[in-house]
Amino acid sequence: MCQVCTLAVGAGLGLSRWIGVDDAVSGIWIGGLILSSSLWFYSWLSKKYPKLHTTPYMLLTTTLIYILSLIPLVWTGVLIYKLVIGIVIGSLTFLLGIWADKKVRKIKGKQLFNFQKVVFPVASLLISSIIVWIITKH
């Protein structure tokens, strides 16, 4: 995952909190940001230390970053049910966006447009945010 993805997800999180969006929707962007950061860090780590380029290390890195990201939310009492649900949805939809990008590249043999690698995961977060917002609005 690239730094642009991480930056785009972080900007989406900041925007949703700033305009007072529901915690479930904010959680979607937090989940995407945590997963994006985890994958980016693992990518950097495996390039620097090629022996670490294995699935167990990827899972370990991702788990540690989730734990390190969520502990401060637990300590401050910010981690609530809606936020946890949002984080799970965001992580899964971000993975879905990554998968869709890879699938399109495999089928077409190339990317369809510039920054497709960024657009697919961020668009998946945006779509899931809209769906959750519609479901949770009163």
Radius of gyration: 15 Å
SS class: mainly alpha
Q: What is the residue-averaged pLDDT?
A: 86
Largest sheet: none
Kindly report how far apart the N and C termini lie.
36 Å
Report strand %: under 5%
The strand count comes to 0
- Number of structurally distinct domains: 1
The outline comes out as globular
Number of helices, where a helix is a run of at least 4 consecutive DSSP H or I residues: 5
Q: What is the helix content?
A: over 70%
Unreliable residue runs? none
Order of helices and strands: HHHHH
Molecular structure report:
The chain has one domain. The chain is mainly α. 81% of the residues lie in helices and 0% in strands. It contains 5 helices and no strands. The model has no long low-confidence stretch (mean pLDDT 86). The termini are far apart.
Search tags:
138 residues; transmembrane; membrane; transmembrane helix; mainly alpha; single chain
Topology:
Blueprint: H1 3-18, H2 23-48, H3 55-75, H4 81-108, H5 116-136
